[in-house]
Amino acid sequence: MRLAALGVLAALLTAPLAAQAARPPARYAATLEGKIVDELSYDRAIVGDDCIVQRTGQGGRELAIKSIRPTTIEVARGTSGVVYRPARVGALRVEATTLPGSYTEIRRCRLLPPEKLVVDCRRVSSTVRRMSANFRGNRNAILFRRPASIPSDVTACGLDVRVPGGWLHEFPGRVDQSALLAGRSVRVIARASGTRRRTADGDPAFKRTQRTTVRWTLTFRRLP
After folding, report:
1. Are the beta carbons of 179 and 23 closer than 8 angstroms?
2. What is the pTM of this model?
3. pLDDT value at position 217?
């Protein structure tokens, strides 16, 4: 009799777990929108046989990211957390724009008075790419991965050197994974924003500072 009661109790305990395991994954239409702005300033000295040229300038680049169409993503509970299938937002339109800037150049040559030059650089027409963005989930967070190549490197007015630009991976976004798994919310949103500053001054003849501002929104809309 006691064994029968224990069997009934075990069946009652395992029934909800079996029902949860049998529940189909929640399906969402995911869209991404974001903006990445890299501001670059520099101070560079070019030493020649008879002249020293000191150039100080600034400029930057902006990336505008927007989904052309939604990506269908299934969200399910895995052994080590939430599993996204696919863990990617596809069909993105990435528009890169070179921001306006300026530079000041002072040229000092032997036996000649110093020369000063001020140049303005205009905003350059945008270039557009189609790409996708991979991500992973971790403790109610969405973390994008850095692609093999950033859509556009960053330069500044009067500078012939390019440096890697920022991307979505700079800052993780918070998301309610319980709401995603339950599949009852019409819309679940993950957001991130922040600013990061990098300075490269190892070479006294070439110092530069890069300020990267990232803002993105990933929206999950429930599918029937």
Report:
1. no
2. 0.84
3. 98
